[in-house]
Amino acid sequence: MSRDLMQRKTRPFWLHALLALLSLYFFLCAINVMGSGLKSIGKETTWLADAIAQGDNPLVALMASVLVTSVVQSSSFTTSLIITLVAAGELSAGTAVFAVMGANIGTSITGIIVSLGTLRIKRQFRRAYATALMHAIPNVLTMLLLFPLEWVTSSTSPDGFTGGILTRIARWITSTLDLGSGEKMFNPIKEITKPVVAAVESVAGWLSGGNVTAAASIVAVFGLIVLFFALVGLVKNLKDALLARLEGLFTVLIFRNDLLAWISGITSTVAVQSSSVTTSLMVPIAGAGAVKLRRVFPFMLGCNIGTTVTGVIAATANPTAGAVIVAVSHVIFNLTDNAIWYPLRIIPIRLAKWYSALAMRRRKYAFLFLGTVFLIVPAVALLVSELILYSD
Predict the structure, then answer these.
(1) Integer Cα distance of 94 and 168 in angstroms
(2) CB 162 within 8 Å of CB 92
(3) Does residue 7 fall inside a structural domain?
(4) 329, 170 in Cβ contact below 8 A?
């Protein structure tokens, strides 16, 4: 037994809880640190704005987000980054909504990778791969429905706000919270993270020798790095503290009916702040036959709802109207996903079972779906978009 494994087993619950709280605090600090750096960069130079301006193309925003989320394997990270960019004024809310759709698709890759670990046992692989697809397929189908609808209905209102039907619904909901465009409301999270932001800015100023642009770049990059590691620490400690206790309840209580499975998907994902963790945990359990596949589907839908909480936290840390609009649109996207595909669940479930059977007979199809949806299509779409923009 390795030393790390022994330490993990002997580490008490309270210590995991404490480390999770510390990770959450630094996660919030990182969002504000990164936002501070991006705002300063935006004031001093236009290179960042010029780079992100390519995202004005909805397809670029979507595919770039799929690609980034597939690489980092965390929609929480990508969504938090998108919301921070909006709060910093470096990305429009209308464009960010398309990027959030891509993050929803990219997060499905983790479960599929986990399922590939059962390739040698055909029957188990078929169930495990079908479980992973039950997370990916509804996200892809919902994107195929909402992306063109959002794009076609996108327009600019007299007050200069640009967005489609999804963005406008989110804006209407946000307006009920009394948030004016770009106006910030008092938030205690901002206050408790202020000392850390000030300290990082001070150190960055000293390291840069007084160069404002260099200091802002250091602050933004440092915030990005801390955001990633804080999210990893948050997920790891919550997983060690809670999921081990939940696993024994799966077959006894959680999957007794669809409603319980759905609620469990929401609560467990909120608890660990990562749908990648909860859906990936479900893959081997369902693959072993401990849970019926028809009960897995509502659990996956619940996970999609639960994963929106990270975006809400990020928007709370930077409470501008645009940031909240993006967070709310993320919730709306996943609520729509649930509202459409639970009543029509026979479609994604049968698609998942059919393709998993095909992948079981010919393993190349398992890798084909993985490479095509998460790497090839986003990369090709980005390349074509770049060529079109360049030719123009």
Answers:
(1) 9
(2) yes
(3) no
(4) yes
The CA distance from 59 to 382, in Å, is 8
Tokens 């909006």, residue? 86
Token digits of residue 388: 């079109």
**Cβ contacts of residue 224 below 8 Å, gap of 6+?**
30, 34, 81
- What are the pLDDT digits (tens) for 138-152? 999 999 999 999 988
Q: Token pair 């960010």 is at which residue?
A: 96
pTM: 0.72
- For residue 158, how many other CB atoms are within 10 A of its CB? 5
Q: What is the pLDDT of residue 1?
A: 43
CA distances to 64, 150, 189, 230 from 219, in Å: 24, 34, 19, 16
Per-run averaged pLDDT (10 residues), the chain, 392 residues: 49 74 81 75 55 62 79 70 77 84 84 82 87 92 91 76 82 71 53 87 87 85 82 67 54 78 87 73 78 89 87 72 84 93 94 92 87 79 66 56
Residue 233 in contact with residue 19, Cβ under 8 Å? yes
Both tokens assigned to 69 = 């989320």
**Residue 297's domain spans which residues?**
12-391
- Tell me the per-residue pLDDT of 206-261, one tens digit each, with 9 for 90 and over: 888 888 888 888 888 888 788 778 767 766 776 665 555 555 555 566 788 899 89
Alpha helix ranges (H) inside the chain: 3-10, 13-44, 47-52, 58-72, 75-87, 93-106, 109-115, 122-152, 165-175, 188-207, 212-238, 244-247, 258-272, 275-287, 293-306, 308-317, 321-341, 346-361, 364-371, 377-391
- Structural domain count, the chain: 1
Instruction: Establish if 4 belongs to a structural domain.
Output: no
Instruction: Count how many residues are written for the chain.
Output: 392
Position of tokens 């009394």? Answer: 178
Would you state the structure tokens that stand for residue 258, as one six-digit string?
Answer: 């669809």
8 bridge partner residues: none
Q: What single-letter DSSP state applies at residue 242?
A: I
Handedness of CA 18, 307, 81, 129 (dihedral sign): positive
**Which of 330, 313, 341, 338 lies closest to 173, judged by CA?**
330
- Considering the domain boundaries, does residue 5 fall inside one? no
Which of 244, 248, 356 is closest to 293 using CA atoms?
A: 356
In a domain, 290, yes or no: yes
